[in-house]
Design a protein that fits this description.
This protein is an alpha+beta fold. It is built from 4 helices and 6 strands, in the order αβαβαββββα. Helix content is about 30%, strand content about 35%.
């Protein structure tokens, strides 16, 4: 099994995820594409000392980008939206 810091790449901080965090106690993270929901939940519980109640994952398709006449594609990635139990927070977001 991988280390918890290898599974969670970074948090996603946007207006939409801020609304999710305030209203539903849900947090969004960019994770490695091979991570399962159980691995994501255990990594978050280990890193932030919280209790995870639900994990939803989705694969985000890489966007097409053009530089002059050359057409390329950004890499695809995986996003996880994690619901925490009532009263738990991830301290990383509180200063934002």
């Amino acid at each position: 099994m991988r280390d918890a810091r290898q599974i969670i790449i970074r948090p996603i901080v946007t207006e939409k995820t801020t609304v999710l965090r305030e209203n539903s106690n849900q947090y969004a993270f960019r994770v490695i594409p091979s991570a399962s929901k159980r691995q994501i939940a255990s990594a978050l519980e280990e890193l932030f000392d919280v209790h995870v109640t639900d994990v939803r994952t989705m694969r985000m398709q890489g966007k097409k980008k053009r530089l002059g006449k050359n057409l390329g594609r950004r890499p695809s990635w995986k996003k996880a939206i994690v619901t925490l139990s009532e009263g738990d927070t991830v301290d990383f977001f509180e200063g934002v």
